[in-house]
Amino acid sequence: MNIASSAQQICFVILGSVVILGALGVVLLNNIVYSAFLLGGVFMGVAGLYLLLNASFVAAAQILVYVGAVNVLILFAIMLVNKKEKLKEIQGLKVRKFLSGLVCTGLLLLLLRVDFTTQWISPGPEAIGEMATERIGEHLFTDYLLPFEVASVLLLMAMIGAIVLARRDVLTSDVGTGDSVDQNLIEKSNEPILLDQSTK
Amino acid sequence: MLTNLKEVIFFTVNTGLDLESSFNNLLQGLGLSSEVSHILWLPLPMLLVLTSALIGVLVTVWLERKISAAAQQRIGPEYAGSLGILQPIADGLKLLVKEDVIPTKADSLLFSLGPVLVLIPVILSWLIVPFGQNLIISNVGIGIFLWIALSSIQPIGLLMSGYASNNKYSLLGGLRAAAQSISYEIPLALSVLAIVMMSNSLSTVDIVNQQNGVGFLSWNIWRQPVGFLIFWICALAECERLPFDLPEAEEELVAGYQTEYAGMKFALFYLGSYINLVLSALLVSILYLGGWGFPIPVEWIAQFLGQNIDAPLVQVFTASIGIAMTILKTYLLVFLAILLRWTTPRVRIDQLLDLGWKFLLPISLVNLLFTAALKLAFPLAFGG
């Protein structure tokens, strides 16, 4: 065993434990902010695993999308609404915890069984390294064009949905009778953005 | 031994100044195995990056103090060294020996981790900065994409320190920093994409090589004037320099996410922001101003003077010209950034986000579209 491969193995052990322990921390920690930061660590660990597999483009994309966008948005949302409040007691919490633990253990056992029964080809196909960027581009614009476009439509729908939710126009008066009404929404706009402009 | 060294030097300059292989050859000439010499080589680029980044920061801090003084009709630092040139070192030493305070109610773990997370990605990004054909730490294929990915880690560090300080100004500063860097990263990446489309490569070395066909006339700034402006504005916003320094706006937020920091942890933020400024200027010069290229190609000059471009001495000479040109262009841009900082007022947060999302993003999309069209229409001028 030469230096390069032993260094690779040490890196793999470290990254693997970071990912597993971090993921456990995300689920089990009580402080939601810690969970969110640990999630970023897990994403970084996965990017490191991609780097070990000689897939540098995928690793960089993983960091850019998951750490730079997804995790930052999660943190953003948590910090904007980080109110310390007593949650209501949930009925039968112990039974629920037991049941979800059971499901998770079952899933783990199933995956372990898959892991041990499959004949893994070793070593796998050779990594194409620096060529990967071009190859991914080719695939995205030829045989994976439809999934690529469908995914972009999905993102567009999510974006429109977010805009609709964020710009909820509140009616301060009943449209039929003209009486003022309270819709019991949590947030109340001081000035209805679109609806009341015609009456002015 | 001496002949061996001569051979090594000859070999070095003959292959276009490839320092790594010549270093390995030297050590192997001394009777070490290739693996040992590789391990001995590994820390050298890291040290080189750290020292060059630090020296860059020291120079920039001195420039900032002197130029701001000139802009405000003061003298600025003058007692530490001649013209106050040692002032940044004095500042750094002061920060080193200051007491490191962690507020009682702060989250000490996240509080210490935040500045580190801000600094490390910035230093790592120096890997992809080329000073010559082979004078680059690592010519990774994903080059400029690595920088974009790494710079997206920074907001997490800012959010972390803002949250951990347990201070409303810090939290607001951290949130603003994250919002700002998310919104300006998109036009930034789109303008880089236009460049990448023209040079058919993400690698910084290829991007510079593609610009140096006919000297300064072939620099990307002529082909991508709009992209250059977008990139420069976004780079300033990512560095949180005035007019975009909202995360640490003194009059509104004390010092933003840095409010509770002192001593070395504050120094990490300070270093991070200045290294980021120098790095952004370097990247602008690489992407738009021809990197290490001399305004008139050195090959032409060598031909005019009747010199062989591959001769060892000429190689050393051209390499030094390359380094000097990169640094010159970079510091011209740093000078511009400093002038902007001391002469422009700060924008409001809503103006900042409006500029990012409603102006720069559409413009950079149109710029990308135009570049694609021009590339198809004039493949000779726009990299077919």
Mean pLDDT of chain A: 81
* Strand/helix succession of chain B: HHHHHHHHHHHHHHHHH
Shape of chain B: globular
What is the CATH C level class of the domain at 1-81 in chain A, in words? Mainly Alpha
Unreliable stretches covering 5 or more consecutive residues of chain A: none
| Largest β sheet strand count, sense and barrel closure of chain B | none
Major sheet summary line of chain A: none
Please summarize what this structure is.
The complex is a heterodimer of chains A (about 200) and B (about 375). With about 200 residues, chain A is mostly helical.
Name the descriptors.
heterodimer; A: 200 residues; mainly alpha; Four Helix Bundle (Hemerythrin (Met), subunit A); B: 384 residues; 17 helices; 0% strand; globular; disordered N terminus
Description:
The complex is a heterodimer of chains A (200) and B (384). With 200 residues, chain A is mainly α. Among the domains of chain A are: 1-81, Four Helix Bundle (Hemerythrin (Met), subunit A); 129-186, no CATH class. Chain A has six helices and no strands. Chain A has helices at 3-28, 32-52, 56-80, 93-117, 132-141, 145-166. In chain A, helix 1 runs antiparallel to helix 2 (32-52) and helix 2 (32-52) packs antiparallel against helix 3 (56-80). Chain A is extended and about 80 Å long. Chain B has helices at residues 2-14, 19-29, 34-41, 43-71, 87-97, 108-124, 143-151, 154-164, 168-199, 204-211, 220-223, 225-238, 250-253, 263-288, 298-304, 312-343, 349-377. Chain B is globular, with a radius of gyration of 22 Å. The N and C termini of chain B lie far apart (50 Å).
